[in-house]
Amino acid sequence: MASTVLTDFSHTAERLTDRINEALAAAVEPGAGCPATLAEAIRYSLLAPGKRLRPILVLLAAEACGSHVEDAMPGACAVEMVHAYSLVHDDLPAMDDDDLRRGRPTCHRAFDEATAILAGDALLTLAFETLATRLPDPAIAAECVQILARAAGAAGMVGGQADDLDAARAETLREQFERGETEACLATLESIHRRKTGAMFCASLELGAAVARASSEQTEALLQYGTNLGLAFQIVDDLLDVAGDEAATGKRLGKDSERGKLTYPSLLGIEESRRRAELLIADACAAIQPFGPAAALLESLARFVQRRDR
Ligand code: GRG
Fold first, then answer.
1. Is 130 near ligand 1, meaning CB less than 6 Å away?
2. Whose C-alpha in 56, 92, 147, 304 is 20 to 30 A from the C-alpha of 201?
3. What's the pLDDT at 2?
4. Residues of the chain where predicted confidence (pLDDT) is lower than 70
5. Which stretch of DSSP H or E encloses residue 106?
């Protein structure tokens, strides 16, 4: 059963990833005025071999709501640009200080810190230019800009990252943990990850829905799917940090425990974390049942997230 599910998703990923990569490569053809090294750092980071889960979500959501892949491609590219910027900045010494990402040296290692900061800035800016100029309907373009800005901004991904880095909050979490207040710890962790990781999953689905002019019921169902999927994705990410394989994930592992960071496995243990991820995936899949067979690929993506090793 597991292998059927993974095979289903690998077919979908194969079908869409080449098209996404082509569109991304075209979007970062260096324009006049862009310095050569900056252009190289942008392409190095954006075109590195990631899973492309967020752009695939945009395209599958649009398809499930009756639209076509090509119509949703600007949204798919924009969300991957924001994701790539967040990884470049997260890897910087001032943040997570990492030297390996997607199986390669991180951007600031391959280039230098200033270039990595600027490549991230350029990717973030290009995401909004892509939405504004590549979506033909100005009303839909404006809606998509709003969706992505809200998810990526101070009350979304950036806010979640700020809280995740906040030493005072980490101290509070640890004290709560030591007092045995597991539920309070879980609520804090969930609040961080809903913004840091989950908001971009939800935005991806909402972008696909906006392009397809989905009904509010369809959008709501997709958001429920995205909220559960995003949290499950994070739990699995924490599990991979404990028991994953560096060659498969392409990043350094074991960093959470090295830093004494509270994570789902450190709070709940490995088995209970796995069980929670499984329940969240089941809830994600239940949320999209109203789409009928059109939801099958979103369901296979969710199963992939649960069982992923990278
Ligand atoms: C710097 C504003 C700012 C935000 C950073 C996304 C993020 C917030 C940090 C990345 C660090 C991290 C490990 C987050 C947890 C989950 C996550 C986003 C993992 C990376 O996503 P994948 O696995 O990566 O989809 P690929 O490389 O496959 O695209």
1. no
2. 92
3. 46
4. 1-7
5. none
Helix (H, G, I), strand (E, B) or coil at 207: helix
Structure tokens given for 299? 């369901």
Q: Tokens 């230098």 label which residue?
A: 112
Is ligand 1 within 6 A of the CB of residue 86?
Answer: yes
80 CA closest ligand 1 atom index: 29
Q: Is the CB of 193 under 6 A from ligand 1?
A: no
Kindly list the structural domains of the chain, giving each domain's residue range(s) and its CATH number in brackets, ordered by start. Answer: 2-307 (1.10.600.10)
CA distance 89 to 61: 28
Phi, psi of 52 (to 5 degrees): 60, 35
At residue 299, the 3 state secondary structure works out as: helix
* Tokens describing residue 222: 């997709």
Beta carbons of 236 and 305 less than 8 angstroms apart: yes
Cα 255 to Cα 225: distance, rounded to the nearest angstrom: 29
CA 103 to chain centre: 17
Side chain identity, residue 51: K
Residue 212 structure tokens = 């397809």
Q: pLDDT per residue over 159-193, tens digit each?
A: 999 999 997 778 888 888 889 998 999 999 999 99
Q: How far apart are CA 232 and CA 246, in angstroms?
A: 20
Ligand 1 neighbour 228 (Cβ under 6 A)? no
Answer for the pair 234, 198: CB distance below 8 angstroms, yes or no: yes
**How far does residue 197's CA lie from ligand 1's centre (Å)?**
7
